[in-house]
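Lecture notes, unit on protein representations.

Consider one protein chain, 325 amino acids long.
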Amino acid sequence: MSAETEQTKKPEISVVIAVYNSADIFPELYKRLCDALKTITESFFEIIAVLDGCTDDSYGVIYKLSLKDKRIRIIEFSRNFGHQASITAGLEFASGEAVVVMDDDLEDPPEILPDFILKLREGFDVVYGIRRHRKRSLPYRIAYALFYKMLGKLADIKIPYDAGDFCVMKRSVVEILNEMPEKNRFLRGLRAWSGFEQTGIEYDRGKRLSGESGYSLRKYLKLAMNGIFSFSYKPLNYISVMGFIIAMISFVSGFCLIVFKLMDKIRDVPGWTSLAVLLLFLTGVQLISIGIIGAYISRIYDEVKQRPKYVVKRFAGFEKGRKGD
């Protein structure tokens, strides 16, 4: 098959990879990914690497590979827009009938993708990975468990426990995700919200092949907040209930104090300690409530600005006539 034919033929499978500082990892990922996919398909597939403001030579490394293999396409952002924006861009530019979403660090093994594709061919619309075991430190594992427990209790839809972005989806599902306009994206939640026939496959998550993860604790917290506030109104309901309970307690306490004062049952005893504790408690409740309301308002503010989810600096490997040319 000629290079021109490979570049213009519509792929059966598109693989979207969010890339951040993976110059040392991507060649191994590319090799293992190609080895895995050739066992499940003889048709043409494409690899879309979305570079999210990399500060190393990731572009140079991947571009050299793309000169040898026309199945590789590159989207490079003008700066770091975040992991979810990277996946969003990849989904928008993918053209395969099935679209794989995965990270660049090899924590999610490409060798399991044939199992995903087989499940898709059985009739499922989405097949996602369920992390059976993580090779992360104990504090991170505890944090993950607490987040998914909290998300399960708060979310208005059922989001699979311990299922990340690693998945394969049919074209119909990808088109639905591409129509969703929100900026603060939690793609595994959007994927669950879309419905369709979905199933999970358990696997053991590996360790990053090289370097440090681009996901800091702050970014994990931001993703967790997006997951909760994008798919639940319960925090606002809890604020209302808590405010009502505190107001009722205050009303009853105030009424009792007035009655006791009229009955001359109250002595002039210093009560500054209990008063200070009460004031601090109520102030804390108010600040927490304002913070939760502010989190929802900030997301409204992001949406009404209507800025793009990402800005592309350059493309490589896309044929003329495709989006982005």
